[in-house]
Amino acid sequence: MRRKIAGKTRDEIKNMSKDEISKDPVTMCDFEEAVTKVQPSVSAADIERHEKWFSEFGSA
Predict the structure, then answer these.
(1) Which of 1, 9, 26, 43 has its CA 20 to 30 A from that of 35?
(2) Alpha carbon of 60 to those of 48, 53, 56, 57: distances in Å?
(3) Mean of the per-residue pLDDT values of the chain
(4) pTM (two decimals)
């Protein structure tokens, strides 16, 4: 999508049809770039606390 809207004004983007914007498939490059921008949803401390709990009590 970003490639489709690059260099366009806000009005030009608003006037684009959804089909026009979504025709390009997601590439591996798109996926790899997105992965570098994603932040972890849990902290290392949360993972450690979960692992400790799991070793003590097991799965539910």
Answers:
(1) 9
(2) 18, 11, 12, 8
(3) 89
(4) 0.42
